[in-house]
């Protein structure tokens, strides 16, 4: 595993941490974007988009929509419109046709950048060697393509903090979580790269259910963005009531950003995690050696528990910063 | 799935339930045998042995030893000495070289029956159509061979109540539990047979840790068999302290027998469970459709929770019946 | 690999070679039976039947039919009605609904033996240690079940001479030949058993096309059985004209028997052959290390070429012995 | 499958066909380069290099060396240094440590272009929509990366004519040919792209053995390049004598270029070819539906036979054009 010297200096000096948020909005992606852009601890170099919850055209438009709602100026780069090897899957059943059903969505006035997301990732990592943290909260296609197109970035990535996978049960198949299942081969590339890696999987994110009383707190902010979040969560809730009998939806993707802001909210441990990229019943599984029975080297810091109240307090505090 | 009329009559009339206990003793197998043979609710037609924790010669000898310790007269039949397709694995690291390390083991005076376990299973199921419950607490090789050698038994098996698998994390690989991993192809045959099936997997059996205070209760019985159990559990504990940081060993196999005696101690639900019998990271996994995302028909009643105190009370009460 | 002393004595003394012909008739199976039963070099201990070209009930009936046509008295034993692990496939498209379409089929007067084929195989191999050659020309389910039910037969089997597999292209998938594909797990057991093994695969059997002029030679015998063969081959031709654009069908299964009678007709070589028993594009492939690139030990004598005229002369000569 | 209008106009007007030769020199790659650069029918837009026979640094240097030997000015672009997903393999055992052992190799005076091969491929295909033929004679990593980084190129590629795969036996495993095995996932992307595809696999290229008398013809040209070819073939011969017992090496990669120059020398047919990208015994196999048993649509024109004398005459004539 690579060691990056930049890492420690930045922390010491209180310099905001440079991140690229790679996403497929998506309700929880939208909240992850809000959390990142509201936080002075992070310098969001750019938002990159990828196929996933819905097609690339829509995830990119949704990123523009969220930026519009927030009134922020971060650049947005569109990336891969399909997985590396497997056929594309998507999650309209969960996120609605647009990928962001629920609130009224304004027509974005801004534009997507002309540069490809993969080129943007490569450029930024090489520009700030050892300083850039990648935060993928969708399929890992962009990150994997960047690693293969320009392998010199691999030792220069400070860290990858991702939402994806599960150490127990999947959500899209019994074995696999949606983000990883969307592109298991990309995941195999990323998990095998030797980059410091933090995984926030379903086993953790399923602890962050947005119960109605939590949703009410966002609405109680009395702000436009607070209402927007509440409406996102109310739509997102429906699927989870039906599928899981839960009284709300987990805010998966925000966990990865929250970990960067308040690692102390999370209990994690290092494990070996391998990706099953062969087709079959476990296609797309993040095979986590929880009991350390394989003798394989730990390669991933895995989120195990989150202080859910702390998580929601952080989220509320930051969302409250928007008008 | 087959319906067996015998099933309901027996219950109604309080006739003891006919079972064949198929095992690979093994510490927890030994306790499962004790529990079964002490219980008037069960008529143990025979004990059949199979390769598994240790080689067939030793699991068979261990069955004889346990019968000797208990002073019971149930017939014992040796079965398959190797898995159907894959190479044999074993668990001397957990159960010791003999497979039953810990207590002093008497030299058995009795003999194994000349009939092959597979023939015994076939014979009994055809003799008592719809009445025989199979209780496999080792690799499923014998049951699978019986089903393929004489497919007419399949609709005549009352139920299969097995220890094996897991709905979350495995113990022999990150994906697989030992019994199923020993012979995934046999498991695929059994789980695909359409027979009423109850699975007590690690997700449940790991709830039954024999803490020192629980072990002390067996010792406090002041009986020879109580001491024997305590010594089994003390040896069995070592591996689990080291591997899992638990203060004792789970008594996996006894869960299957306890379920037959007191189903009310167990919370279960019907799921689709498929076996991954293709080699790879998930080889031997019991892929359980916990969130019902596959559309595949439920084929297995899966143990989810056990009333652990109730379980130990039952075990104590029954072990206390031995001298 | 096991060495059998019986092997060499028998040859020396001109004692007929004891064989069990395990088959799924099937047109070419029927001709293999005729060839075997007409040959004084072979002592056919019994014919065992297995699911395959058509269901077990029909393959067994067809064996009875062929015995009836030939007026012979060899015992027939029914075996496995389904593969070990995978779902059953069959080949009515090639062999017709009955499995033996073409000639008029008499109603057999004889009966199948009550003993199961697997038990018969075990019994005979143990009765004549080192002397019995198994000749499977259908799916390998019976042989595999016998090996697992009674592993002591493994070192006592003189040799297995089978029809199945291919070193190049399959016939039921691009990768797999029908017999092996019917039960790849059984094939993996048999090819991994360490028994002397001869494989007559499609790469060889496709050399034995029964062109119309060859069929005419059978008809020209002017016998009932000669006509029966001709009618079998005429029906069997249809599928092969359509699928392969050949002017006749290969007589696959007779190659295995012919090899026992006249090994000099065949060019063979030792290779490592492994069975792909994992599902996927190569499921059921006999992976033959033709260029010796794997470093794996040769375990199979693979038929490469046959003197086709010699083969047909032998066949004609033997078929001519029947009325 | 996409239809490209450019295709037919070019042919009609005798405009040289625009190609990009994507290679991993490699002895036979070197000869493929020579053949392409000597031929007025082809406009070689550039040579792109990829990991394969040896590492990228060496394959790139070897491309520079060959250009130096030929005194040509085609631009050379370095591409991927590793496969998409699997670990890198290489073939020093066949091509020597440098990848081009045998002749004296001059120090190249020219430089590799700064642009990445993948970007060059994308740029050229988009610049000449429907006109560019890709000729990959190494692992398919560059082509696959280009397709995923810029999917708009896919319908604009005129054709892909590749050396790789086999319809029968592999050379690096029993199932797989080296180029495809180097990056099966890239191959799956390319074979699944819907682009017109021609595959020259081992089943064809193994017909082009450079027997000593053929090598002698190159030497007899009395030219520097003729000698260079002869020395390449003499070194390349060694491995093939040992492994295959052939009296020379096949000139695999030149077949793809020769097909573009004289398609009439080749017998081909359309088949469905799928890539096995799951690990196992058939990893990297080009599964060709030769007997059309799958019902899958043909997606590849597969080379079956080559007029070997015509092939060598063409090669001689073109090599003779160099000093
Ligand atoms: Ca997402
Ligand atoms: Ca057990
Ligand atoms: Ca047959
Ligand atoms: Ca090459």
From TrEMBL, chains A, B, C, D:
<dbReference type="GO" id="GO:0008477">
    <property type="term" value="F:purine nucleosidase activity"/>
</dbReference>
<dbReference type="GO" id="GO:0045437">
    <property type="term" value="F:uridine nucleosidase activity"/>
</dbReference>
<dbReference type="InterPro" id="IPR001910">
    <property type="entry name" value="Inosine/uridine_hydrolase_dom"/>
</dbReference>
<keyword id="KW-0326">Glycosidase</keyword>
<dbReference type="InterPro" id="IPR036452">
    <property type="entry name" value="Ribo_hydro-like"/>
</dbReference>
<keyword id="KW-0378">Hydrolase</keyword>
<dbReference type="GO" id="GO:0005829">
    <property type="term" value="C:cytosol"/>
</dbReference>
<protein>
    <submittedName>
        <fullName>Pyrimidine-specific ribonucleoside hydrolase RihB</fullName>
        <ecNumber>3.2.2.8</ecNumber>
    </submittedName>
</protein>
<dbReference type="InterPro" id="IPR023186">
    <property type="entry name" value="IUNH"/>
</dbReference>
<dbReference type="GO" id="GO:0006152">
    <property type="term" value="P:purine nucleoside catabolic process"/>
</dbReference>
<dbReference type="Pfam" id="PF01156">
    <property type="entry name" value="IU_nuc_hydro"/>
</dbReference>
<feature type="domain" description="Inosine/uridine-preferring nucleoside hydrolase">
    <location>
        <begin position="19"/>
        <end position="312"/>
    </location>
</feature>
<dbReference type="InterPro" id="IPR015910">
    <property type="entry name" value="I/U_nuclsd_hydro_CS"/>
</dbReference>
